Amino acid sequence: MARPLRIALVAGEASGDILGAGLMQALKRQHPQVEFIGIGGPRMEAEGLKSYFPMERLAVMGLVEVLGRLLELLARRKRLIRTLIEAKPDVFIGIDAPDFNLTLELKLRQAGIKTVHYVSPSVWAWRQKRVLKIREACDLMLTLFPFEARFYLDHQVPVRFVGHPLANTIPLQADRQAAREVLGLDDDAMVVALLPGSRGGEVARLGALFLDAAERLRALRPGVRFVLPCASRERRQQLEELLGNRDLPLLLLDGQSHEALAACDAVLIASGTATLEALLYKRPMVVAYKVAPLTYRILKRLVTSPYISLPNLLAERLLVPELIQDAATPDALAQTLAPLLDDGAVQTEGFDVIHRALRHDASEQAADAVLKLAGLA
User: What does the CA dihedral 181, 182, 186, 187 come to, rounded to 10 degrees?
Assistant: First the structure.
C-alpha cells in the first residue's frame, strides 16, 4: 500500500504553532491519509506532528539578540536539512520564521522537494532584495494579507492570498459582557488590557513601561482597571516581579488574551501579531515598541514602510497611534490612550472593514493550495 501524503512543517513561535495547527486540521479534512513531520509547538503536536526538537529553540527576536544563539540555530538548521531530505516529504511548509525557514526551503527545493512559505516576511517594508531569494526558494507563497499578495505578483513570485484564520474564528462582534463574566469584571467598569508581548525580551523592555503608563492613566481616569494576560508561567513570574509593590487594580491572567481583548474598552499593546487580534475584537488601541538601541538604529535605516503595526499597514493609513522607541514614555502612552476610552469609533469602524476583508477561511484555502501543489487537488 502506498504511504500516506507526507507533509513537513517548521514553525518557530506560538503564532506559527497556531497557524500550523489550523492548517494541519484542514489538510486532514481534505486528505485524511496524511502524516506530519518537522518542528512545531504543542498545538501542532496535538494534531499529530512529530517534532524533531522543541519549537522554543527557534524563538528569538531582534537583529542583535539573535547573535547569541546563531551557532546553535545554524547547527540545528544544518541537521534539519539532512533529516528532511532523507525523509522526502511531498511538500515542505515553512511557517513564518523567515531567517530560519527561507534557507531551509532553498536547500530542500534544490533537493527536489516542493516548498511553501506560509506568512510573508516583511519584505515589502525592508530588505526588499530578499524577494529574489524567496523566488528561488519557494514554489508558493501563502499570504495572510492582500497587500502582500500584490507585492509578490509584482515580483513574479507564485502567491495565493488566503486571509487570516483569526478573522474567521473571532466573531464580527465580540460579546463583551460574556467575557467580563468569565474574568469576574463588573459590567460598568472601565477596563484597559495591557499586552506587552509574549517573549521574555519583549516583557523586559515593555513590561515596566506599560505598568508605569497604567499608573499615569489612573491619574487621568481614576476608575480604570487593568487586565494583563500572561503568555506562560515564566512571563507571569517576570511580570509579578516587575509589578512589585505598585498599587494597581490589575488582574494578571494565565493566557486568556482573547477574553481580555473581548472584555476591555481599550488596549495598550506591543507591535506584533496581537495587534491584529485587538483589531479583530474591535478594541481601540495604542501601539508601542522598543528594541535594543543598536537594533533600532539598524532597522531605522532599512525600513521603508511608513508604519510598523498591522492595523496601519492593513488600513494603508495612520489608523492607530504608534509610539516607538524614545517616543514610548509612560506619560505619552497614557495621554494617547485616555481619549480612546471616551471615543474610539474612528478606529473600530476601520477595524470592521479590515475584519470582513480578511474572512477567507484561511486554513482551508491554505490546505487547498498545498494539496494542489502536491498534485492532489
Answer: -50
Count Cα atoms within 13 angstroms, Cβ side, for 162: 27
- Asked if the structure places residue 168 within a domain, the reply is no
Cα–Cα dist 179/167, whole Å:
18
**Residue 69 confidence (pLDDT):** 61
Same domain, 87 and 197: no
Going by C-alpha positions, the residue among 280, 297, 316 that lies closest to residue 62 is 297
- Whether 169 is covered by a domain: the verdict is no
> β-strands 285-289, 266-270: how paired?
parallel
Give Dmax over CA atoms of the chain in angstroms.
Answer: 71
pTM exceeding 0.85: no
Closest C-alpha to 99, from 76, 114, 14: 76
Q: Exposed/middle/buried for 216, CB within 10 Å: 0-12, 13-18, 19+?
A: middle
Residue with more model confidence, 343 or 99: 343
Residue 295 has pLDDT above 90, yes or no: no
Rounded Cα–Cα distance for residues 203 and 205 (Å): 5
CA 168 to CA 363: how far, in whole Å? Answer: 10
What is the per-residue burial (b if ≥16 Cβ within 10 Å, else e) of 271-280? Answer: bbbbbbbbbb
Domain assignment of residue 170, yes or no: no
Helix %, strand %, coil % for the chain, to 5?
A: 50, 20, 30
Stated length of the chain: 377
- Amino acid identity of residue 287, one-letter, is V
For residues 120, 122, 125 and 131, what is the CA-based torsion angle, rounded to 10 degrees? Answer: -60
Same domain for 227 and 120, yes or no, is: no
Which pLDDT score, from 0 to 100, does residue 282 have? 98
List all residues 6 or more positions away from 246 whose beta carbon is below 8 Å from its beta carbon: 211, 215
Range of the domain at 33: 5-163+360-373
Q: Which residue has the cell 516542493?
A: 114
Give how many domains the chain has, as a whole number. 2
Q: Which residue has the higher pLDDT, 318 or 297?
A: 318
Task: Give yes or no: residues 248 and 341 share one domain.
Answer: yes
